[in-house]
Amino acid sequence: MPLPKFLKEPWRPEVAGALIGLVAVLQIIVVRSPWYITGPENQFGGWLFYVLTGGLLNTKEWAYFNPNSPMFVAPAAAPWEPANKEFMIVWGIMLGAMIAKAIEGNWRLRWPANRMVVLLSIIGGLMLGFGARLALGCNVGNFVATIQSLVFSGFVFFLGMAVGTFISTRLIEDFLMEKMHKSKPIRIELGSNVDNRKVLAFALAATLLTTLYWWGLGIWAAIAFLYLGIAYGFFGSKGNVCFTSMLRDGFWSRLAPYGGNARAIAIALAIMITGNLVLKYGFGWQYREFLFPVGVHTFLGGVLFGIGMVLVAGCSFSSAYRSGEGSIPHLIAWFGMVAGMTILSYVWPFFFTTSIYLSPVLHFYDFFGGNVAAGAAAAYSVALFIALVGSWRDGTLQRLVQIPPLKILAPRLHV
Fold first, then answer.
1. Residue 83: which of 180, 217, 188 has the closest Cα?
2. What does the alpha-carbon distance between residue 184 and residue 188 come to, in Å, rounded to a whole number?
3. Whether this model's pTM surpasses 0.70
4. For the segment 199-212, what is each residue's pLDDT rounded down to a tens digit?
């Protein structure tokens, strides 16, 4: 029986964003936690560094990974260990994207175009990982998941990402683009023409085997994380949803202004905020919210993460699902991100004692005398602002209201 046509074609990012927002609300119900990615990846990184160095880097004794340390966050653990069952959401994201692209008939290995792409993937990946864990979360865990809960650190991290993406967009468009075109090309044809039916069969088999593994251990939460991840990856791939594009193209790019991903993320965020308000304040639903302290580390981590996003052309979410689509540059960046997180874990005591431990946890409503409605309105305004800027930049808003476009960026400097 042939598959429906809509499964074989790309989707509008706004549609995919809405579905991702609904999955994030479902995650609150099913596993009682918000959507997050980098925490389990960091645990994986700690384990990977330990194994690759034969224990020479005893990551398990680092304060970040050591349960006996007062600065302990989570243990270093392999993806198949119960202590890191949440990693299944990452594995699911990769499988979901693989399934989506295989159904379209578009899965293939996509190799780096040149050496500069490889270099930027490594550097950008390291910055993504270091910045994410410095801020205690990435564009998922410390942006949409915190603003969802009306936690102010998400807004500060967003500001940091905005500054970082501005810096790296200008760097790429004004200085590095010509060098990238002159970089020595990489010509690899391996995996460029594959049978997508076999790819789909592999992804479904991997999903089944992973399910049976955790079923045998009786850890149902891991199975839930797996299928939530598959949904995120499938929808993200179908709509090409990308937080990098939200800022780079929606806010800063002079060459290709585009607001589709800004609208997609804004829609997802609005749905997530609404889900939190209904579940928590309407039904009294309790879940593990990310109450991250906000301080210098939040903004600095956001800036580093933002720079890395543009260098990689992907965030923690899109780097994972595009790896599942067969993108080798994003797979390189993903491993670089894991390495960056592990490096941060080594110097964790310094940042913990100088900023994180000393910083307060703030909610949006704390600025309005504890008024939750006002705090929620402030959170919604972040989503609205993102959608409006992206829609203005690509002309969507002008077409709706029929007013001339306004340039909001300074003219390009020629050096």
1. 217
2. 13
3. yes
4. 999 999 999 999 99
